[in-house]
Design brief:
This protein is an alpha+beta fold. It is 16% helix and 41% strand. Strand 9 and strand 10 form a beta hairpin. The N and C termini lie close together (5 Å). It holds the Pfam family DAP_epimerase.
């Protein structure tokens, strides 16, 4: 099978985007891993599959596969690339679309300056829904990681996140702790491990060790989760710029049941074909 693909990135978080509207696509986990492989395949953090949806209240379905082959619920940087993709490939003329994901509907809008704003929906703190094994919804919770106890905020943005505050993002222990948190038994579906440095009430720096992909240059849902965690801890205001190693995202959250809004870039790098 030969597949046409588009290589894209959102603040350095890179994707292979596949048009499942015009092509018949069913990928096995092995094929996902091959496409994502940076030496033997195309290389990416996630594969995004654009499909028609049977739902009348949505325009498309958007499926997300991590580089390790697993299908997951949500991807914020991918959602921005998604709307750019369907617009550029003339799958729709709408600049604002409603997208069905594994974790519900989200709505990305292509702005006049080429950036994209996504309504990511409201964050979830109920432990069972994250899922996180805990009988408390406190904003700060202890988590035993190896020989140390770290303080995390557990939150779902459709996908699970464990966010820590660190003094210096450059020395954050992603390489030693990231995988231990990702696979921690208190997160039964594994988790994305975020590390944020508070610069001031409107600016943070962020690194994320992603579930199923390792450290990426940027994580959109991770940025939303970090800002929500910082606001819940009363460390941040409602609109925050998030500096990642691949670019800056702007996140706004009015609190409690409000949706999180994320704005950032969505860039096409090249198009190609691959034989599977
Ligand atoms: N990079 C993404 C998140 C992709 C999924 C994540 N690794 C997970 O397993 O939940 C983003 O921009 O949100």
């Amino acid at each position: 099978m030969t597949l046409k693909f588009t290589k894209m990135h959102g603040a350095g978080n890179d994707f292979v985007v596949l048009d499942g509207v015009r092509q018949q696509i069913a990928l096995s986990p092995e094929q996902v891993r091959y496409i994502a492989d940076r030496h033997f395949g195309i290389g990416c953090d996630q594969i995004l599959l654009v499909e028609r949806t049977p739902r009348e209240d949505a325009d498309f379905r958007y499926r997300i596969f991590n580089a390790d082959g697993g299908e997951v619920e949500q991807c914020g940087n991918g959602a921005r690339c998604f709307v750019r993709f369907v617009h550029d490939h003339k799958l729709t003329s709408k600049r604002e679309i409603v997208v069905e994901t594994k974790s519900g509907l989200i709505s990305p809008r292509l702005e006049d300056d080429g950036r994209v704003t996504v309504n990511m929906g409201a964050p979830i703190f109920e432990p069972a829904l994250i899922p996180f094994v805990s009988d408390s919804q406190d904003a700060i919770q202890p988590l035993q990681v190896g020989n140390e106890t770290v303080q995390i905020t557990a939150v779902s943005m459709g996908n699970p996140h464990a966010v820590q505050v660190v003094d210096d993002i450059e020395t954050a222990p992603l390489s030693t702790q990231g995988h231990l948190i990702e696979t921690h038994p208190r997160f039964p579906k594994r988790v994305n491990a975020g590390y944020m440095q508070i610069v001031d009430r409107e600016h943070i720096k962020l690194r994320v060790f992603e579930r199923g992909a390792g450290e990426t240059l940027s994580c959109g849902t991770g940025a939303c989760a970090a800002v929500v965690a910082g606001i819940r801890r009363r460390l941040l205001d409602n609109s925050v710029h998030v500096a990642t190693r691949g670019g800056t995202l702007s996140i706004t959250w009015a609190g409690e049941h409000s949706p999180v809004l994320m704005t950032g870039p969505a860039i096409t790098v090249f198009e190609g074909e691959i034989n599977l």
